Amino acid sequence: MTGMIIHTGLIIRGTAMIEKRDWHSDPITNETMIDADYRNTQNVRRFFKTAIGDHFKFDRPFMAWMKSHRGSTMQDAVAEWQRREAAK
Question: pTM for the full model?
Answer without folding.
Answer: 0.77
